[in-house]
Amino acid sequence: METKKIVYPGDKIETGDLKPRNGMYESNSEFFSEYFGVIQESEKFIDVAPFNSPYLPRVNDKIIGKIMDIGPTMWTVDINSPYYSLLHMNDSPWHVSSGDLERYLKVGDYVYARISVSNEIKESWISMRDNGMRKLETGRIISVKPPKVPRVIGKGGNMINIIKTYTDTKIIVGQNGFIWVDGEIENVKQAIDAIRIVEKEAHTIGLTDRMEEYLKKMKGEN
Amino acid sequence: MEGNIKLIRDDGLRLDGRANNEMRPIKIQTGVVQRADGSAFIEWGANKIIVAVYVREAYPKHAQNIDRAIVKARYNMSGYSVEERKRPGPDRRTMEISKVVSEALSSAIVLEKLPRAEVDVFIQVLEADAGTRIASLTASSVAVADAGVPMRDLVVGCTAGKADGKVVLDLSKDEDNFGQADIPMAILPRTGKVVLLQLDGDVTEEEFNEATSMMMEAMPRISELQKNALMDKYSLEDGE
Amino acid sequence: MVSKMPMDASAVLSEIRKGFILESIKTGKRLDGRSLDDYREIKITENFVPKAAGSAMVEIGKTKVVAGIKVEEGDPFEDSPDSGVMALNIELLPMAFPTFESGPPSEQAIEYSRVVDRGIRESKMVDTSKLVIESGKRVWMIFVDIDVLNYDGNIIDAATLAAVTALKNTVVPASKIGQKDYALPINATPVSITMAKIGDELVCDPDLEEEQVSNGRITVTISEDHNIHAMQKGDIGEFSLDEIRKAIKTSSNIGNKLRETYLR
């Protein structure tokens, strides 16, 4: 299996004509990796994509969160990050009065929401007042390492779409690495297996084609 | 006592058969504490040490640093890890080790990238056989990298010391107990900068220089093992 | 928004002051006029606490510590039946600085204690073989307690100086057990020299403000045999091997001078 170039913290990054961007630091006009990860080159930029890194909230990310605590006007939400996020009652889809939050979302409930505010010190607030944002009532939630999310989604969503199509499931991939999968139990299992393969082989080349092969074969076997 | 115990044999080798600049065997693995954000297990000679890393908001809130992460290593020894049972909980020695290990890791981690956070590094010494602080630090930096915490470099450490008046690398338990000096050191290999250094015993300036050169020479080999440990996890995952 | 209020303004160095210190050190001069290798004025008061078996007050600039020694009968360690016992402890008293708290010793206090202890112990300053009352049964135990009364940087050196001075004037109260009192047998005079890394420079005997802007500290303890007996790199920061070698040279030179002047 062909893989991209692997780097370790402190490894020198040969930037060439590309502009160094994420996952590296500068020292004496040279660039060095901050992560154990792979080199990713695009037309203009070069990045180090870590194999693992904690999720850090970014405005407009659509995420899945888990209610951890309930206050008089706000829920505290685990967004698969070192940092908790907050959901204010006025940013929920319901008319909630102060002190009555538990009626709508209990500790342990999952929500699909958007990061509406996040600041330099990684404090963030989420909002559910957008189309499609809601409490997730059925299905299963799994988590993947946050840096693997783009791979799970695929270019233009093509990876997740083939998984959905072949397994006949509904899937929401939170940009924070929490993923919701709903459908027939067997189908959900197959979809999760497929997602796990993508997560593990995220740093390899030609993964989408191999995934389609895998799904075809899996379907043929059934 | 000291001086009365022979640590170098007549053939010039050490009691365990090693040459003066020879390390004990080292094995490092990652992904050993699945629940943690990152983890590592190191066997260094007879030392067995497991490390788990968690990254979270520092708690309580007033303990947070608004502009950077706090690194909190906690070195802890199991009761059964040493000859005579070690009473559980921190003591003065383990607290000092926790402090110097935390500081060494802090020098490598890009703290500004994780404001308000705490990088908790739990170090459990399951079996101790000289050189535990350096083995702990070497494993900790692998576990921190495994957790995806941004780092300028992988901290790597080693010890040297003096046994029977000779400078030797990677002290054994006997050499640690009955030798004349113990020098643990850790560096950032890219720049060679020293982030942990301690010494106790009796060495001349020349002996100190000899010891540090010997350690500097050994460091790249240990670095390689750290990198292999990180890589192994990913190749393993591929094979599944 | 989250904020962390210090208890006292002296615990936080202003950015302006930081810049000022850094700029000044680049030119080789420090804010108090010292050059990089200069030590502050040292004042030693021997036998400061006559009730103790030995004692000293040491002032390095405004840093002020008292060391007091108590000598008591006790049991030897099982693995060294023919050796007395020494224990050393530094207390960072709350009166000395706003962030020092009462209660169990902080990591900082423990680290300082252990560095000072190692320098004294490893130089074999106290001849513990002459502290045996009855082999394997009774020995003299030397308790060195060091209180930091005012903190203005470089506690390690002040504490070492105080402990060494106090040990040198300690009397073993052997008359308590029907023998003759005798001076604590001393074999060496270790001196610790601590340097802070500020910018690209090593600065000897840092004061509080210098410690607050520093990136790492290094202590080297050497005795009159010219050998190194303890070293400690502390705080977050990094040193090159060249800087460490330079620190050893500086420690050797300045330590000799201090020993000649203050510890004869």
What does this molecule look like?
The complex is a heterotrimer of chains A (222), B (240) and C (264). Chain A has three domains: 6-50, RNA polymerase II/Efflux pump adaptor protein, barrel-sandwich hybrid domain (OB fold (Dihydrolipoamide Acetyltransferase, E2P)); 62-136, Beta Barrel (OB fold (Dihydrolipoamide Acetyltransferase, E2P)), CATH 2.40.50; 140-221, Ribosomal Protein S8, Chain: A, domain 1 (2-Layer Sandwich), CATH 3.30.1370.10. Helices cover 21% and strands 32% of the residues of chain A. Chain A contains four helices and 16 strands. A five-stranded mixed barrel of chain A has the order 8-9-10-12-11. A four-stranded mixed β-sheet of chain A has the order 1-6-7-3, with no helix packed on it. A three-stranded antiparallel β-sheet of chain A has the order 2-5-4, with no helix packed on it. In chain A, a hairpin with a 5-residue loop joins β11 (110-118) and β12. Chain B is α+β, with helices and mostly antiparallel strands. Chain B has a single domain, classed as GHMP Kinase, N-terminal domain (Ribosomal Protein S5, domain 2), CATH 3.30.230.70. In chain B, the strands form two sheets. Chain B has a five-stranded mixed β-sheet with strand order 1-2-3-5-4. Chain B has a four-stranded antiparallel β-sheet with strand order 7-6-8-9. In chain B, α1 packs across α2 (132-146) and α2 (132-146) runs parallel beside α4. The termini of chain B are far apart. The mean pLDDT of chain B is 94. Chain C has one domain: Ribosomal Protein S5, domain 2, CATH 3.30.230.70. Chain C has helices spanning 15-26, 107-122, 155-168, 208-213, 241-262, and strands at residues 42-46, 54-60, 63-74, 85-92, 132-134, 138-150, 171-172, 182-183, 191-198, 201-204, 217-222, 228-234. In chain C, the strands form three sheets. In chain C, strands 1, 2, 3, 4, 5 and 6 form a six-stranded mixed β-sheet that branches. A four-stranded antiparallel β-sheet of chain C has the order 10-9-11-12, sandwiched between helices. In chain C, strands 7-8 form a two-stranded antiparallel ribbon. Chain B binds chain C through residues 1, 61-66, 92-93, 95-96, 98-100, 103, 106-107, 116, 183, 188, 191-205, 208-209, 212, 216, and chain C through 2-5, 80, 105, 107-108, 110-111, 113-114, 118, 121-123, 216, 218, 225-241, 244-245, 248-249, 252. β9 (193-203) of chain B pairs antiparallel with β12 of chain C, so a sheet runs across the interface.
